[in-house]
Design a protein that fits this description.
The protein is mostly helical. 81% of the residues lie in helices and 0% in strands. It is globular and about 80 Å long. The N and C termini lie far apart (62 Å).
């Protein structure tokens, strides 16, 4: 009976009992809510992708806002009329007469004066005022005075090679544009960086502007500044200044702000004024950092000065551009090699100058003096006398003014390169063709179809959902604004094609950066061997990467991807390596003591703990790739870059090219903000 009664009682109970709550633990519903709050981002991302694929399959090819090559929207026609209005206003506008024109005339006059002095013959003379001998000796002496003997030898050899390659005048013009731009950057950037270091409000207000200036691809600067300042040296130098100013300002602010607070307090307690603190303590103690900022500004200026050939900027960019347009790989290689030599020369010289200033600052703080200062001063003075004699001789004698015609290294080298490239292309045509076709078929075409063949409103919501899932509300808000700008330009479809190419190249960059970066982060020997190579590649201006890519793959979208990949890998790889190395050694040792394998260490410990650095590497790689992809419009890359180039070459398409520059800007800002907010969120996690 008791058994039957117990069975009846159990039968009367509910089929499922609520689990017994454990004191101190959240209820099941609370657990589910907490789990949903933690997982809503990947769930939202998955839902967005699924809905996107379904709608793409159903609505593919409709409402894509595709625009023909010669078609123009009302915005493009308005921008054309704006260009005409700017041209008309140059003669009767007070702003142009009293602001723009004096700036243009001043910069053009300075460049013309320096060209007549060093690179081009002025009126009434068959050669410049200072001939080749005077230029070589003068540059060598200045380099020795600031950077030392090794840098002097490097500069002298590099400058002579410019002439032997057949690009003496163009090389000096590039140096003139670079030096003028860096000089103006220094005049503007040092006070701005000091102000930002001493005022939090100034830093808060100016930092977003610097972010925007560094985010914009270089192509985006060209059309708007050409609209205001016309084409020529002034527009090229102002464009270069805008591109090269942010690193100098940021590094100067960093150097001033990182001066020891104890030292500043000691100076203040001794009654030092703000001016004395700045000039006697902060600037001397941050001198090396400021010189590093000048180094970074110089490299950015050189990169932009070559691209400014599109707006008739003088220098080596002109022969590179002409060679690319005519598919003359040999000439493009030689002129590109001259740019690379100049980049190495400027980088090594400014780096040596920063190291020398660091030694001088340490000795000065220690109350000592550099060894042999008297001997060095005598050598510098003797060098000045020799430079003055060389300048006089090169001014007076034609043979010392005109660069000698022999030895001529440029033409034979160009011929040899063309022959070698032709052999490589013929021999490895099967492999290069297979690689190009495989990547295009498996990655580029499917992604471009997804992006460019989706209805614009579907993709707009997809990008918004991705921004919200990865970066949060701020990234989503910025995405909405950028999408509106891209729609307003009338180039939504071309922007999505550019985005597809950018994402493919970025994916390849991140994959390679992860493999090599993890290896460098875990192996000091590998880091010591690979990092100098990456540093060397990072000094090469973006224009130059187009040359080998064009030689191997011809004028196609894949050429732009290859050049963008080569341009983006160095910075992304170094960031990944630094992130892996930054993982706490205590954590690594604890994992090793538990018998963790190398693969488990990388996948379970080091990569998860350095995920913010990995996302930052993806961010920087993406921005480098985007800037290179649009430059790839010169070699058949298509998309927005091609429209920018068309806008410069065809007057009726200027408005469309300017709109493409605006779309590039919006695309760059959107991608940057999404990845930056993602990195910041992961860093807080």
């Amino acid at each position: 009976m008791s058994t039957i009664a117990g069975a009846r009682e159990r039968a009367a109970e509910p089929a499922t009992r609520p689990p017994t709550a454990v004191p101190g633990e959240p209820a099941p519903r609370e657990k589910a809510g907490a789990l949903l709050r933690r997982r809503w981002r990947p769930l939202l991302l998955a839902a967005v992708v699924v809905v996107w694929l379904v709608l793409w399959a159903v609505l593919k090819g409709t409402q894509t806002l595709e625009l023909g090559g010669a078609e123009k929207t009302g915005v493009h026609l308005w921008l054309n009329s704006l260009r005409d209005a700017f041209d008309a206003a140059r003669t009767n506008s007070a702003f142009f007469e009293y602001v723009v024109q004096p700036i243009t005339d001043g910069i053009n006059g300075l460049v013309t004066f320096l060209q007549n002095l060093f690179s081009q013959a002025p009126a009434g003379r068959p050669v410049p005022q200072v001939g080749w001998l005077g230029v070589v000796v003068l540059l060598a002496w200045v380099t020795f005075a600031f950077a030392g003997l090794r840098s002097m030898l490097l500069v002298a050899a590099s400058v002579l090679l410019f002439g032997f390659f057949g690009y003496w005048q163009q090389s000096l013009d590039t140096l003139i544009v670079t030096f003028v731009a860096v000089g103006l950057c220094t005049v503007l950037g040092l006070p701005l960086g000091i102000w930002m270091a001493r005022s939090r409000r100034a830093s808060t207000a100016i930092t977003p502007v610097l972010d925007l200036m560094q985010t914009l691809p270089s192509f985006a600067y060209l059309a708007p500044l050409a609209l205001v300042f016309g084409i020529g040296p002034a527009a090229a130098i102002i464009t270069t200044i805008i591109y090269a100013l942010p690193p100098l300002v940021r590094i100067t602010e960093h150097g001033i702000r990182n001066v020891s607070p104890t030292t500043l307090e000691a100076v203040t307690s001794m009654g030092g004024t703000a001016w004395q603190t700045l000039t006697k303590v902060q600037l001397p103690m941050s001198r090396r950092t400021i010189v590093v900022g000048i180094n970074q500004s110089t490299m950015a200026a050189l990169s932009m000065a070559t691209i400014a050939a599109l707006i008739n900027g003088p220098g080596l960019g002109q022969p590179v551009l002409q060679a690319l347009q005519s598919l003359d790989v040999g000439s493009a290689f030689v002129s590109g090699l001259a740019i690379v030599l100049m980049a190495i020369m400027l980088d090594r010289t400014t780096t040596a100058a920063s190291e020398r200033s660091s030694i001088a600052a340490r000795v000065q703080r220690g109350g000592g003096a550099l060894r042999g200062p008297r001997r060095r001063r005598l050598v510098v003075v003797a060098g000045a006398v020799i430079a003055a004699i060389a300048i006089y001789l090169s001014h007076s004698y034609l043979t010392l003014a005109q660069f000698p015609a022999s030895p001529n290294l440029g033409s034979p080298l160009a011929t040899a390169v063309s022959t070698i490239v032709q052999w490589i292309v013929t021999t490895f045509a099967g492999f290069t063709g297979w690689l190009k076709d495989t990547v295009t078929a498996l990655l580029v075409n499917p992604l471009e179809s997804l992006l460019a063949q989706s209805p614009w409103w579907v993709l707009a919501f997809v990008l918004l959902g991705v921004a919200l899932a990865l970066g949060g509300l701020r990234a989503a808000a910025i995405t909405v604004v950028c999408e509106a700008v891209i729609l307003g330009t009338g180039l939504w479809n071309e922007s999505m094609k550019t985005l597809a190419t950018t994402l493919v190249a970025t994916l390849l960059v991140v994959l390679v950066a992860l493999v090599i970066g993890v290896w460098m982060g875990r192996n000091k020997l590998a880091d010591s061997v690979i990092r100098p190579i990456l540093d060397a590649f990072q000094t090469i201006p973006s224009f130059v990467y187009l040359v080998p890519a064009l030689a191997l793959f011809g004028p196609t979208r894949f050429t732009a991807i290859v050049a963008a990949f080569a341009y983006g890998v160095p910075i992304a790889t170094k960031l990944v390596a630094d992130g892996i190395r930054g993982v706490s050694p205590v954590t690594v040792e604890a994992s090793e003591s538990m018998g963790t394998t190398s693969w488990q260490m990388v996948s379970k410990v080091q990569l998860p703990m350095s995920r913010a650095a990995v996302v930052l590497a993806a961010n920087q790689g993406l921005l480098y790739v985007l800037s290179m992809v649009v430059v790839g419009g010169l070699v058949g890359g298509g998309g927005l870059g091609y429209l920018v180039v068309s806008g410069f070459s065809q007057s009726q398409l200027f408005g469309k090219g300017l709109a493409a520059g605006i779309a590039i800007t919006a695309l760059g800002v959107m991608l940057d903000r999404i990845t930056q907010h993602t990195a910041a969120r992961l860093g807080r996690a």
